[in-house]
Write a structure and sequence with these properties.
With about 350 residues, the chain is an alpha/beta fold. It folds into two domains: about 160 residues, Nucleotidyltransferase, domain 5; about 170 residues, Nucleotidyltransferase, domain 5. It is built from twelve helices and ten strands.
Length: about 350
């Protein structure tokens, strides 16, 4: 682990994130202090199509990437001369979107000689907790739940993870988006289901909670998604009225129950007494409330980032990039986008 830097050792990370539909840049000091965090969201644009269109996302990143970088530096009252290293997401994500951020970071590194540090997107999500909770240090257990990922990991040290469980099919956020589309809520599905569920009865419909026999910590949400679709089709065939709020609340409760059960089982087995959540689904109000209650009942300290740090942003990449930089990680100008980059390919488990 790393101690605090004195003023002479201050490290400024310029971070870039463009893995999906958010064009983002930030400046982070010493891994935990955010000096700027600029996000250009493409959600209104992609809402027209019911989801992210990769080609459109890439083109919009090209239009906005220089603007968000310049604003991040201006908001931090710094110039490139002050920057210690450039951190950039290089996977996983949409390949065209990733390439825009990686290319921008490499161009700046080439022109200035500033060291380049590639960051795994999930590493960034986990590291958002260090910004929100300066007192948090490894080891602890963390659940990463987003549109593309459902990971349950032990954070052995900064940037070093042991993977306990992953999704076998749909990620939690992906299931939220598909169910939202099925009941007519549109995109983005997660926030809309969260809002609508507050008006429904979470016990109205007994949707299934899947368990994976081979690994108790793995997740599977495709069966739940299918159960919701079958319920909707059944109601339509019978001419029965569908209560959207009850469907949303019951579906959400099924997802939350599985995430909480698996996560707390892992925390108790590891014995750390510290648990964190990360990723877009971590901003779900029902999930946060369930974890707060369950952790309090078991004497587990619960950590979670603010909603702005749960969704894709560059500040989290800056936090992760700082610890990678301090570990001596450097990338050359041959750094490339890796759309299917696995966490275990970058960070092997610690003994």
């Amino acid at each position: 682990m790393f101690g605090e830097n004195n003023m002479e050792d201050t490290v400024y990370i310029l971070a870039i994130e463009s893995s999906c539909d958010e064009t983002a840049a930030a400046v982070v000091r010493n891994g935990r202090e955010v000096l700027s965090n600029v996000i250009y969201s493409q959600v209104p644009l992609h809402t027209l199509y019911g989801g992210v269109v990769p080609e459109i996302a890439s083109r919009k990143h090209i239009e906005k990437i220089n603007q968000v970088i310049e604003k991040a530096l201006a908001d931090a009252h710094l110039t490139l001369r002050d920057i210690t290293a450039i951190a950039v997401t290089y996977g996983p994500g949409l390949v065209g979107a990733l390439l825009v951020g990686v290319s921008a970071a490499k161009a700046i590194s080439f022109a200035t000689g500033i060291p380049l540090v590639g960051v795994h997107h999930i590493n960034g999500h986990i590291s958002a907790n260090y910004i929100e909770h300066p007192e948090l240090e490894p080891p602890f257990v963390c659940l990463v739940a987003s549109g593309g990922h459902s990971h349950l990991v032990v954070v052995r040290d900064y940037g070093q993870y042991e993977i306990l469980g992953i999704t076998r099919d749909d990620a939690a956020g992906e299931a939220f988006d598909k169910v939202a589309r099925a009941i007519g809520l549109g995109y983005p599905g997660g926030p809309k289901i969260d809002q609508l569920a507050k008006q429904g009865n979470p016990e109205a419909i007994p949707f299934p909670r899947a368990k994976v026999a081979e690994n108790a910590y793995d997740f599977s949400f495709s069966g739940l998604k299918s159960a919701v679709l079958n319920y909707l089709n059944g109601c339509q065939m019978k001419g029965e009225e569908i209560c959207q709020a009850d469907v949303a609340a019951s579906f959400q409760k099924a997802v939350v129950d599985v995430l909480v059960e698996h996560s707390l089982s892992a925390v108790q087995a590891c014995g750390y007494g510290k648990f964190a959540i990360a990723g877009g689904v971590a901003s779900n109000s029902a999930l946060r409330a369930a974890f707060e209650q369950a952790c309090a009942a078991r004497g587990i300290t619960f950590y979670h980032p603010s909603p702005i740090l749960c969704t894709d942003n560059a500040a989290m990449i800056g936090a992760a990039g700082y610890y990678e930089y301090m570990r001596g990680v450097r990338h050359g100008l041959d750094l490339n986008a890796v759309p299917n980059l696995r966490l275990e390919e970058v960070n092997a488990p610690c003994d």
